[in-house]
Amino acid sequence: MRTSRSLFPCHLTLLWACILLIGHNAQARKTRLTWVNGIAYGRHHMDEGKQKIEKIFGGKRVEYCHNPTAMSHDDDTLGYIGDLTQAGTQKLGRITGEVDELVRHLK
Questions:
Q1: CA-to-CA distance for 64 and 41, rounded, in angstroms?
Q2: Which residue has the higher pLDDT, 90 or 12?
Q3: H-type alpha helices, the chain
Q4: What is the pTM of this model?
């Protein structure tokens, strides 16, 4: 009898581990992988980065919320300053259209 009693905690631990794994897998199915662009990122940057991120995460589909850049090309300094200004105002707590769009995307 001593042997069966000592195995009981082991079986109970194994049962809890299985329940936790099942719960973890159920939770994982409800998740999604979202990427939000940074300053000076155009759609072509997002598409290229999306493919790389999907590869890193084993082919899991990546959704991205693109915040349009004020830059017309990669060397557009004034557009870059516009992006920095927008990011700065958001950091200070101003709710912009881009913030609202991100909230809609994440719902």
A1: 12
A2: 90
A3: 2-29, 43-56, 77-91, 97-106
A4: 0.56
